[in-house]
Amino acid sequence: MSRFGPSRFPAVKNGEMACGTVWGTRNLARLAGGCTVAAGAAVLLGYAGGIRGLARPVPAGPFMVPLTAVAFVLAGASLWLLAPRPAANTPPRLAGQLLGWLVAIIGAATLAEYGTGRSVGIDLLLFPDRTRVWSIGGNPGRPALYAAVALTAVGMTLALLDLDASHGYRPARILLPATALVTVMVTLGSAYNLPVVTSPDIGLALNANAVLVILTMGLLLCRPQLPPTRVFCGHGPGALAGRRLAPLLALVLFAGILAIVASGRRMPDGGLAVAAVTMLLLLALYLVFARAGAALDKAQREREDFMHQLEARERLEALGVLAGGVAHDFNNALATILGTAALIAEDLGPGHPSQPDIERIQASAQRSADLTSQLLIFARQEPRRAEAIDVGAAIRGIEDLLRRTIGEDIDFSCQTADGLPPVILDRSDLEQMVLNLSINARHAMTDGGSLTIRVASLTLPPDATPSLPLPAGRYLHIAVADTGTGMPPEVVRHALEPFFTTKPAGQGTGLGLANAYGVVTQANGHIAIDSEPGRGTTINIYLPAATTTAADPDTSTPARTAPTGHAETILLVEDEPAVRHTVARTMTRHGYQVLEARSADEASGIFHRPAVHVDLLLTDVIMPGASGYQLAEQLHEEKPDLPVVFMSGYSTTTPPDDDTTYFIRKPFSSQELLTLVSKALGAR
């Protein structure tokens, strides 16, 4: 259920549509197939036993010829086998397709006989003597012309019912409406008693026409998700409107019959005109229904997509809040660990045997801080800043995270070439994109495999291949290749769409590739998918090279001696007792006087004491009550030149742009804090 309540139009499941009864549309289709087989078999039994009533239910009408009856038996059996939609290359599906081709061959051979005026020798294969006696017209045993047309259409529809041609096109989308159109034309001609339809060599026998209607209805019901059935049998608003307007079709048919009956006579010419007008009206109504229904269904899909996007955005926002809070608590704990370890190391002295243990504690805490920062990648909580970055270095920086994410059963390698150009991109966007692509690859390799990330430089000439819609120039090529299951072409075509996923519920949101597409597109790059079932997938990303140079990471070794103070007074505001105690001890040990406060209100009270002179405000940002920013703004009104150092474990906090304000992210080392405090005091 969405935040807007349950949808009035539930999604179609397993091909069952709103028109399905207790049995469902596919069971109704199988019933139609069984009736078709029974009707054809009854006609053959009539010929075998000389029972005219089985081959011709109306005494004055024409007989259904044996070849037509055989075709109906084959078509009904094919429909029975194909209605449940068996899997590809299974015996039921192959047998159903074979029977469909046989029906199409019978119809096509008969059409060839009419076209050439020559017999191919199939008309009198069954019951030749009785067929010659019972047949009406000049071609004993030959199916009527319209019967041949209908059988050809029915046979091809059955044979190609579930075929997906190139580019995902299904021939059945054309064949099903064509078969329905032929059936309606023949039935209208019989209902209006048009000679052009009812003459012996052209028209269908009454029982053949009835069986054709049943068979066509079964064909339409066995695949209700295809036109024209979906216009009336869907769950969407378009299908609902189609069902409500469907009586108009019956009204048109009834009006045509009334026009003929009211004339009081048979009208060869007038009847043809009425039939033509009726047919055109039916076709026009169907097209109107289909177009209006498609528009309504599109609006419904867009509404549902919007609801899904809104729900996904809310989930991501909730995840971001959770990750930010967890990171804040972790960073506070790590700040305490790092600060306390530094104090112990100073107490013990450089040559103490426990110094290596303390260094290991500090290194582990720093690695934990790095993991906390990488945790925020999942929730996109890192500050976004597009700049010239070294992609190879950025990916190597999250290599450990990638290895832990994909698991030990995946062979992972990261290959980066030398001399790579920088690209203008937000680092967190890049990390998020690579992480999402790696997770997608992991899901495609349930039994293990290998994942390779390659980063190389690429120069496109002016006559570059059309598959890369990029201008000539230098690019950075990132390839994320796996040995997983791969994707068929129809999945590749939709893989970059938001919320498109083939994974089971709970294993993916369908946003990974879509987010990658958004990041790459905003950077004026291109993303392409090279995949084939059974041969894995390679995601190729092309990013334009930047003309500026990427900033080198700061690899300088900090001075081992931390700067000391000169009895300056520091107002320390921190709501976390452990962090406040550790920072206060560190600052006191290095020559500062520290006034401690647990909140902004308490700090304001200390600041306004008559005998207190504060040289620097060192405050946390997120605290109960007023924030550190609000406290600094309040104190700056009274002392504009007061230096302020903000501390925060939240990655999204950004300090005000001011010459007197500085920012340090938790967890920090004692040396980093002391250096920044000394810098802030020296800039006064």
From TrEMBL:
The keyword Glycosyltransferase does not apply. Its EC number is 2.7.13.3. Residues 569-681 form the Response regulatory domain. Pfam families: HATPase_c, HisKA, Response_reg. The modification 4-aspartylphosphate is found at D620. It catalyses: ATP + protein L-histidine = ADP + protein N-phospho-L-histidine. Residues 325-547 form the Histidine kinase domain. GO terms for molecular function: ATP binding; phosphorelay sensor kinase activity. The chain crosses the membrane at residues 31-51, 63-82, 94-112, 144-162, 174-192, 204-222, 245-264, 270-289. Keywords: ATP-binding, Kinase, Membrane, Nucleotide-binding, Phosphoprotein, Transferase, Transmembrane, Transmembrane helix, Two-component regulatory system. It comes from the Bacteria. This is histidine kinase. It comes from Actinoplanes regularis.
